Amino acid sequence: GNSVTQMEGPVTLSEEAFLTINCTYTATGYPSLFWYVQYPGEGLQLLLKATKADDKGSNKGFEATYRKETTSFHLEKGSVQVSDSAVYFCALIKISGGSYIPTFGRGTSLIVHP
Amino acid sequence: DAMVIQNPRYQVTQFGKPVTLSCSQTLNHNVMYWYQQKSSQAPKLLFHYYDKDFNNEADTPDNFQSRRPNTSFCFLDIRSPGLGDAAMYLCATSPPGHLYNEQFFGPGTRLTVL
């Protein structure tokens, strides 16, 4: 079946540091890939997405590139801010029996210190 | 603002006492999802609706049921909650089936079982 593996957290960084959160997936065919962010006390919200190989999703200074050869979708940001502190979820959507089934990773907590 | 609303935000029930969680949406999306999220784990898809078509995940316990009386509302019924059912329950919606579509999440209901 489909699966998403994220690096263990928490990731603790100082403000303006470079961020990488690793995500790899297992799925047949060509799933769409997503990063969601969950701020404290709120629901998940879409951060960025990519729908085919070599696509780059970007938003709010975050980027991720769909790498089919390594089945990866690593999240990066050049300079993090305290306000980026949240839990980040990598996810894929794949067609299964006519339905669009999402699969999430377990989330990676990011803590940014001033 | 169009949104996904979950009530209540916090629910306490007793072991074995039936409980219902509710979700409403103003997005007019065809697809609605229920997830169970335990601490430091990936959101686990319980079931989803495409319009009125109900799709149950194979490993969702029979103890969990769902109703969708109309496009806007969806309910999660836990018939006999056990201690292991304590979790955050997330409702999400999505526009008509499309591989590229993001999900829109509510803030979640945290269920405590005493």
Detailed description of the structure:
- The complex is a heterodimer of chains A (114) and B (114).
- In chain A, 0% of the residues lie in helices and 55% in strands.
- Chain A has 114 residues and is mostly beta strands.
- Chain A starts with a strand and ends with a strand.
- The model of chain A has no long low-confidence stretch (mean pLDDT 92).
- Chain B is globular and about 40 Å long.
- Chain B is built from no helices and eleven strands.
- At the A-B interface, strand 5, strand 6, strand 10 and strand 11 of A face strand 4, strand 5, strand 9 and strand 10 of B.
Mean pLDDT of chain A: 92
Order of helices and strands of chain B: EEEEEEEEEEE
Assembly type of the chains comes to heterodimer
Largest sheet of chain A, in brief, is: 6 strands, mixed
Portion in helices of chain A: under 10%
Question: What coarse outline of chain B follows from CA principal-axis ratios?
Answer: globular
Content of β-strand of chain A: over 45%
Roughly how many Å apart are the termini of chain A?
41 Å
Number of strands of chain B: 11
- Judged by helices, strands and strand pairing, the structural class of chain B is mainly beta
Spans of chain B of at least 5 consecutive residues whose pLDDT stays below 50 are none
Helix fraction bin of chain B: under 10%
The share of residues in extended strands of chain B comes to over 45%
Overall spatial form of chain A: globular
Q: Helical segment tally of chain A?
A: 0
Evaluate the radius of gyration of chain B: 13 Å
Spans of at least 5 consecutive residues with low confidence of chain A: none
Largest sheet of chain B: 7 strands, mixed
Distance between the termini of chain B: 36 Å
